[in-house]
Amino acid sequence: xxxxxxxxxxxxxxxxxxxxxxxxxxxxxxxxxxxxxxxxxxxxxxxxxxxxxxxxxxxxxxxxxxxxxxxxxxxxxxxxxxxxxxxxxxxxxxxxxxxxxxxxxxxxxxxxxxxxxxxxxxxxxxxxxxxxxxxxxxxx
Length: 140
Hints:
Blueprint: H1 8-13, H2 23-31, H3 40-53, H4 59-68, H5 84-97, H6 104-132
Helix pairs in contact: 3-5, 4-6, 5-6
């Protein structure tokens, strides 16, 4: 016969730790709209001018434009690598809304997104290694 848990084993089951979060709720949280980025309109207009002047704009030139972009308030909101994916996604969505999904510019943005993902992964990997692995002392 199986008896109910009692004693010290019961406390293991009744902890105050939060329950696991389901995949559906995680995806729903990711799908929530993020705060509006005020510089995206200006970035989109600048990129649009560039690809109208040069339809063969490369993904590297797009990433350079992100890094060197100066917003109206004088800040450089996309200089850091972790900001590139969000900015490129917003620009791609805007271009798609304008009917440019099959254009060369969209293809270059898509390749730029790939570069941004890889760069962000390398950056995060480097930061984790620097934080978690202590520097070994040099031999005297």
